[in-house]
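Subject: Re: docking follow-up (2-acetamido-2-deoxy-beta-D-glucopyranose)

Dear J.,

Thanks for your patience while I sorted out the input files. As discussed at Tuesday's group meeting, I've set up the holo structure prediction with 2-acetamido-2-deoxy-beta-D-glucopyranose included as the bound ligand rather than trying to dock it afterwards. The sequence and the ligand SMILES I used are pasted below, so you can double-check that they match what you have on your end before we go further.
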Amino acid sequence: MLAFMKLSGLLAVGASLASALKVNVPTNPTSGATTQIDWTSTASDPSTFSLFLANITDAFDLKAIIGEFIDTSLGEITVTLPTLVAEGGYVLNAVNAT
Ligand SMILES: *[C@@H]1O[C@H](CO)[C@@H](O)[C@H](O)[C@H]1NC(C)=O
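The structure tokens for the complex came back this morning:
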């Protein structure tokens, strides 16, 4: 059986590279499990963006592509997080995809 590790406290949200888009830290993110990610945006934000999960201490250590060309107007998505070890820290980065 898969061990679902709690990642609370290990997951942060990075500076958004997509204008005023503000991604909220997911509540109770769990490795390998379904997690809801929500964000707030303004009219000046791009219509689509991508979400990447990286190592918080090494931005080039990409752990997962959470989503690409996400419709900004949705406000939230439900994704299945990849299996991650519960150590160090992770950061969610929103990147302009338009
Ligand atoms: C993140 O990067 C650091 C430094 O390269 C490394 O020591 C650590 O193991 C990495 N964390 C994960 C979860 O891969």
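A couple of observations from a first look. The chain has one domain: 11-96. The radius of gyration is 13 Å.

Let me know if you'd like me to rerun anything.

Best regards,
T.
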